[in-house]
Fold these 2 entries.
Entry 1:
Amino acid sequence: MLELLFGSTLVNWGPPILAYVQQNPWRVFSAILVAVLLIDWMVNDRSSGSCDGGLDFGSGDGDGGGD
């Protein structure tokens, strides 16, 4: 079934990719970590709710802090 979907790509590229991952686990881990952080940064625009680009802790209404 996978061969119908991907052709022979999985068969041709699978063993070299597996060998590279086994030889360089920290390099693969760091590349995956960088990719995840970049995707998170692109998807979640953290500075959209704040004018100074910092953390947004809300407006302070409803925090129960006196008048």
Entry 2:
Amino acid sequence: MTTEEDEREAHATAIAQLLGSAETTTEMNALTRVGLRAGFLWRCPTCKEPKYANRETCCDKPRPA
């Protein structure tokens, strides 16, 4: 893996652990917002769902730059 891929994998792991420990919808929503702003998640332009940083495609389209 490249350094960028390693970093994306680390970000995905970190946010997945945080989201997994969230106990309320409010916590999940807050973590999702922070994850999006920090680049640990990205939002699919088609379905609008947040995706982990290590995922390169959604809805058969590549991750936006």
